[in-house]
Amino acid sequence: MAYFDAASAAPLHSVARQALLASLDEGWADPARLYREGRRARMLLDAAREAAAEAVGCRADELVFTSSGTRAVHAGIAGALAGRRRVGRHLIVSAVEHSSVLHSADVHEAAGGSVSQVAVDRAGSVDPAAYAHALREDTALACLQSANHEVGTEQPVAAVAELCRRAGVPLLVDAAQSLGWGPVDGDWSLLTASAHKWGGPSGVGLLVVRKGVRFSAQGPVDERESGRAPGFENLPAIVAAAASLRAVRAEAAAEAARLRELTERIRARVPRLVPDVEVVGHPVRRLPGVVTFSCLYVDGEALLHELDREGFSVSSGSSCTSSTLTPSHVLRAMGVLSEGNVRVSLPAGAAEEDVERFLEVLPGTVAAVREKLGAPTAAAVAREEDVLVVDSLGKRCPIPVIELAKVIGDVPVGGLVRVLSDDEAARLDIPAWCEMRNQEYVGEEPADRGTAYVVRRVV
Amino acid sequence: MAYFDAASAAPLHSVARQALLASLDEGWADPARLYREGRRARMLLDAAREAAAEAVGCRADELVFTSSGTRAVHAGIAGALAGRRRVGRHLIVSAVEHSSVLHSADVHEAAGGSVSQVAVDRAGSVDPAAYAHALREDTALACLQSANHEVGTEQPVAAVAELCRRAGVPLLVDAAQSLGWGPVDGDWSLLTASAHKWGGPSGVGLLVVRKGVRFSAQGPVDERESGRAPGFENLPAIVAAAASLRAVRAEAAAEAARLRELTERIRARVPRLVPDVEVVGHPVRRLPGVVTFSCLYVDGEALLHELDREGFSVSSGSSCTSSTLTPSHVLRAMGVLSEGNVRVSLPAGAAEEDVERFLEVLPGTVAAVREKLGAPTAAAVAREEDVLVVDSLGKRCPIPVIELAKVIGDVPVGGLVRVLSDDEAARLDIPAWCEMRNQEYVGEEPADRGTAYVVRRVV
């Protein structure tokens, strides 16, 4: 039994559980009341707000608790757009935002606003220059996730925030996937997050609005949470959320390194173990625990079912619509294969042996699904002798790419070329070459020196 | 230590606590996922929905879980208004609805809709005929609470629902205060409730939309909860909410009778123990655990503070704005005294001895606050010999009122007249007479036969 879907919901952290239990007894009363139970609830709420604000890196009076990350996004976008309505009604989002952001954008557009979607590259990254290009006189708000929920790619938030700041446009950062790992860098204006992504309980989101940001809460509000999140505070869960955020942060550096090594194994070995697989997401600028790949000729639901039978809980396609298994908007925006998509997102504490067993089980599982579907026989896995190694260490681009192009005809179709390079540019150029030449970029692997970029000959 | 503010938030029921603990381990995963943890979460969610629907008296697919009762009200009103936008944009609410309803009405009005407020009588009751009168060709929705949150008065929901049904207008019932005691009678169309009012956890509300009611969810939505409540489901709390609703219902009949007797003691004795007190709310058609009274010449905040020092947690003024202690819109709509207002709302299991001690402590507390405030010396509490008893048993109205009017001059100013009557009309007529003649209607007390209506001579 291995739960590898932390990007959907992390199991409750032990500190969250303890804090929740303690505050069930201390924190059930209305914090707006003047009597002792109310004052006690108020103290717990204030302390939770201080702790969460410290973890975010903001003032306590800039942070309110919402009932979910989704609610935080909806309220944050609607409030920021309304607060700057005099400036204009133009909203910028990336094409790979969480559905809560895109749904908000849809509502804005339906109400007469305009929306620009900033495209991403094949790794799922936005280019800050594209945000700069999208900014207009009438731009009321820009939104950018800190890291993508489906492929783990980290976005250049600080750079985009700086560009927005110069243009006088607030940037809202959806930090749902990253806040447990650390604060969001840069001079952002609004931030949202979700406790159950970091091991806190469900039922708690964060909405941070920096002082000085024009904000006008929309819809009916009340006196709770500075008028930004109506309804009785879910206090025991809020206390648990704040306590667990501190706890996961204390463990974040060590756990990030450990998980990063485990996901690197998956990134590197899946393409060698399974034919016709595309590992997607940025190979370096990525969340520690997330790795996503797509398998040609595989039905995502069938693969999930088989993996579940083998004891692995993973996600497929869009994280928000996986019950219907519609194609993921993220994978489409990246222009990568979306069929047979598997997202492995390791929770804190994920066991190495579970990852190893996953790698053992996966090839047979994929093969079985392909066979059931009567898929065309995939190119056979290249034998060791079909791997050709190009040593481009110490050589600058475009040499590694040129050397790759020279040798690709020397391996049979289905065979592999490993390009060893220590030039950072190769990381972008080799996949780009594959795209242009219709060859398959399998992925990268750590090497003794530099990185090995693996390419499979397709044509 | 006695917590008498269950109408704000009830302490967590032991069944809620147990269910919450159990589902922290079983119900943290995403119920939209296909793997085992997701399926387990889905089963818990489905079972909770079935249980809640059974308690409400609706189909499971008519009920969604929201993040609070307030959210349920906001979503319910907005969705019902939008669903019937072609019919018109007229909304009917009572003047004594919870602030979440009134805030929704404000937003609707600000967006160009029209709102009619139906007035209440001095007991806080709406007259069904007034709803009938308010219904128009362009009425999209009517709202009526099942029982008032501040004074406990139960509303004639079934009668109003019938009138609305005949007019083809959906009725939304805010059942936050009553759902723990029993299902809402009548042919209503939408219903909302809040788990922490019945001893469930915070973070859970219910929104029921009957099949056939036109409903168009507003704002950004997602695929969760039938598209009516976006954001990750707060599953452990939902499970606890449903389990505790069943549990409180099993105890409801016996506990209602017990609490009704305790609040009847307060209703009857406070006016005898404390001078210049008005007990408000309907004397008979009322929630079992709620009793509200107002003390002339008393500052509500100071009184709450003194009662808190004595170990009693009660509420004052509007239950929704008590942190600011603005005058309650409910008491104003009723036309009753709002200064020095105290709402006692007994939680299930409230101890008789705590109620007795409250009655012991209250007179001195009120007197101390009055003295501190330098209030004009209140009329002294009538001595026993200043009480004049009129026996109108077996006599029909208007005889009891006539006999009262004959003898009021026989007691000194500040003295009391007790009118014994078994005619139901006296319950309305005697207070009405007091209003007209500027005499003080102190309240009613159970008598050996019939009821004693107590009047203090003022002029």
From TrEMBL, chains A, B:
InterPro entries: Aminotrans_V_dom, Cysteine_dSase, PyrdxlP-dep_Trfase, PyrdxlP-dep_Trfase_major, PyrdxlP-dep_Trfase_small, TusA-like, TusA-like_sf. Its cofactor is pyridoxal 5'-phosphate. GO terms for molecular function: transaminase activity. It comes from the Bacteria. Transmembrane segments: none annotated. Residues 242-269 form a coiled coil. The keyword Protein biosynthesis does not apply. The keyword DNA-binding does not apply. Belongs to the class-V pyridoxal-phosphate-dependent aminotransferase family. NifS/IscS subfamily. This is Aminotransferase class V-fold PLP-dependent enzyme.
